[in-house]
Amino acid sequence: MEVCKSPQMFLYVLLCCVGVVRCYGNGLVSSVCGSMKPNHGSNSAQTSTAPFTVTADNTAFKEGDQITVLLNSQPGDQFEGFMLQARQVGSTTSIGTFNVVDSNAQLLSCNGASRAVSHTSDTKKSSIQAKWTAPTSGQLGDIEFRATFVKTASTFWVGVKSSTLAYTGTSATAAPTVPSNPDCGKTKVCFSHPSSCDPTANTGCYFMAVQTNQSEMRIEMFGQADGYVAIGFSDDQEMGNDDIYICGKDSSGNLQVQHAISTGKTAPTILSLGNVTDIKTTLMNGNTINCSFTSRNAISTRSRATSTSEYYLMIAAGPSNSQGNIQIHTKKYVSSTKANLQDPSQVVTSAEEFPAIVKAHGCLMLISWMTTGSIGMLIARYLKGVAKDHGCCGKDFWFMAHVSLMALSVTATAIAFILVFSYARDWSGGAHPVLGCLVMILSLIQPIVAAFRCEPNHERRFVFNWAHSFIALAIKGLAVAAIFTGLALFEEYEEDGWMLKVMGGFVAWEALIYVLQDLNLRAKRKGNAMRPETVLLVLFLLGNLAFLIALLVGIGRS
């Protein structure tokens, strides 16, 4: 073949082959975390005793211990590449995390964390040192360090083991005592939701306790979540610049304790665990999380607050992803006042998530556009013939009822609008305030348009009729949308969303009444003598009140 006669082409093919064999000279071998076997073509691992050793500076460990690991070669031998992991005896999954202290070593990500160490280049090495930190939680047991040594591309050893390190800590399978209330108010500052709930008797209880002893705190947390429970210390009742401890599932499903600082509505920044000891964790039924530990870390909220012991207490819970990273919380509870961590005698209660003024806003909007506004619109559309030529001040009854009900709706809407803006004093963002403002604007426009309407027999009266009907329809649609988005805010952290379902039932009920009224109107035009308009109105009012009362109770309990 002509290609074989080209020395340049032959050299190129040869270099490509060398590149395939030596493609891991940089040590970035996370793809073989499980097997620890180099991808060196068809070459197999050696079965003879390796001229290299793996040793640890201790024979036992417990949670959070740091172990120094040494990789050494026998005199006359050196290795070019390596991979080091810690595994429980008999397991194929790496555990713990490493730190490197050698310029020829680098951290590797295995199972979402720095659970392995490898070479940085293929220069020959006689020894490597690394530091391994034991997990702080989870079901632990005896471990051994395992290493792969690469002498040349075709000569390597896989799974060279250290001596076994005995686990001497308290296994996470032996659950710590569930936090209990008897010490609350005596030696512990406690905060829970519902207030004063007992986690020993109520798995729906979210609970935290802090017992301060000079410069250390014994912290307990308990709650139900698919991923994590977190507690926080804050200078205010809003999330942001808060000192946080998280007890959540890692990528293997085991509980771990993390220290973090919150940065607002984004994921918190994970910090070094710092001076945290005596960690105990348990996971019951897959979603009941219980953690306790001792912290000597100073609380830092990154603020200029003068107090060093008074903080708002926070509890949050939510899911984690498959890598063990926490997601946005689905539960959040904040204390109503600051708690002095040095004074366990105080009673710490949960703050209302929605102040009374916000609840009043919601109730007024429900009454306006579920009841008075809806009935006023029904009367104007379907009951003009009822008590015709009977009324007051020359106006028919239906007209007086319609105007009165709609005036009440506009007045209540204006009051609700003023209440919520006086509370927020800012634009909160989202769809709900936009919808509310549109409802308020159109509600004010509608009576102005009505005041300048022409006489009923005027040739251009149809313009007013169409405009009035269109604005009314727009207000109704926007008001319903505003109610849905408002209820969604009340139920932001609720799983069942029952108030949204009740509102959906009301919309279906109202639509049914409109259909029945329309069918009755068509029947009347065909000469049917039946006049059930009033009966349907009373029926609508009864159903309306049932839905309204249910939602008002729901808002009151939020």
Automatic annotation (TrEMBL):
<feature type="signal peptide">
    <location>
        <begin position="1"/>
        <end position="23"/>
    </location>
</feature>
<keyword id="KW-0408">Iron</keyword>
<dbReference type="InterPro" id="IPR006593">
    <property type="entry name" value="Cyt_b561/ferric_Rdtase_TM"/>
</dbReference>
<keyword id="KW-0325">Glycoprotein</keyword>
<keyword id="KW-1133">Transmembrane helix</keyword>
<keyword id="KW-0812">Transmembrane</keyword>
<protein>
    <submittedName>
        <fullName>Amylo-alpha-1, 6-glucosidase, 4-alpha-glucanotransferase</fullName>
    </submittedName>
</protein>
<keyword id="KW-0472">Membrane</keyword>
<feature type="transmembrane region" description="Helical">
    <location>
        <begin position="498"/>
        <end position="516"/>
    </location>
</feature>
<comment type="similarity">
    <text>Belongs to the FRRS1 family.</text>
</comment>
<feature type="transmembrane region" description="Helical">
    <location>
        <begin position="536"/>
        <end position="555"/>
    </location>
</feature>
<keyword id="KW-0813">Transport</keyword>
<dbReference type="InterPro" id="IPR002861">
    <property type="entry name" value="Reeler_dom"/>
</dbReference>
<dbReference type="InterPro" id="IPR005018">
    <property type="entry name" value="DOMON_domain"/>
</dbReference>
<feature type="transmembrane region" description="Helical">
    <location>
        <begin position="464"/>
        <end position="486"/>
    </location>
</feature>
<keyword id="KW-0732">Signal</keyword>
<dbReference type="Pfam" id="PF02014">
    <property type="entry name" value="Reeler"/>
</dbReference>
<dbReference type="InterPro" id="IPR042307">
    <property type="entry name" value="Reeler_sf"/>
</dbReference>
<dbReference type="InterPro" id="IPR051237">
    <property type="entry name" value="Ferric-chelate_Red/DefProt"/>
</dbReference>
<keyword id="KW-0249">Electron transport</keyword>
<feature type="domain" description="DOMON">
    <location>
        <begin position="200"/>
        <end position="318"/>
    </location>
</feature>
<feature type="domain" description="Cytochrome b561">
    <location>
        <begin position="323"/>
        <end position="523"/>
    </location>
</feature>
<feature type="transmembrane region" description="Helical">
    <location>
        <begin position="430"/>
        <end position="452"/>
    </location>
</feature>
<feature type="transmembrane region" description="Helical">
    <location>
        <begin position="364"/>
        <end position="383"/>
    </location>
</feature>
<dbReference type="Pfam" id="PF03351">
    <property type="entry name" value="DOMON"/>
</dbReference>
<dbReference type="GO" id="GO:0016020">
    <property type="term" value="C:membrane"/>
</dbReference>
<feature type="domain" description="Reelin">
    <location>
        <begin position="18"/>
        <end position="180"/>
    </location>
</feature>
<feature type="transmembrane region" description="Helical">
    <location>
        <begin position="403"/>
        <end position="424"/>
    </location>
</feature>
